[in-house]
Amino acid sequence: MDRRKFERYGYSFRVLYKKASSFFGMREAYTGDISRGGLRLNLKKIVPTGAILRLMIFNPFLSQPIAAKVRVVWVKRNQHGPKCVAGVSFLHMTWTDSDNLLAGVG
User: Fold this and answer.
1) 18 to 12, 23, 30: CA distances (angstroms)
2) pTM above 0.85, yes or no
3) 70: domain range?
């Protein structure tokens, strides 16, 4: 039984991210899937569970990226491919931004 509150869509969007407390530049990642509640991210660098990240999500159906603040809920290290996969939940996202995130995919 799936306990998720929101339907997930298997789309790969480019994402730039950094720790919310960091002054350093952003890193690149890609989504594994998306929903109104959060994302699965394929990352090249391990992030700790509980970390707060700032994201810029590039939906190819939109002209502007979507800014979001998320909390890392879980992290799994990979043997192959990206360094890890992380599940993140949105902390502050308007319903309009949520609609924009899913534009063209739902």
Assistant:
1) 19, 9, 13
2) yes
3) 14-101
- Give the pairing type, strands 66-77 and 27-34: unpaired
What is the amino acid identity at position 59?
N
Q: Give me the phi and psi of 99, to 5 degrees please.
A: -60, -40
* CA 58 to chain CA mean position, Å: 10
Closest CA to 83 of 52, 55, 42: 42
Number of domains in the chain: 1
Beta strands in 44-99 (DSSP E): 52-58, 66-77, 84-92
Residue 6 lies in a domain: no
State yes or no: pLDDT of 36 exceeds 70. yes
* CATH number reported for the structural domain that contains residue 25 in this entry: 2.40.10.220
* Per-residue pLDDT at 82: 65
Q: What's the number of CA atoms in the CB half-sphere (13 Å) around residue 55? A: 31
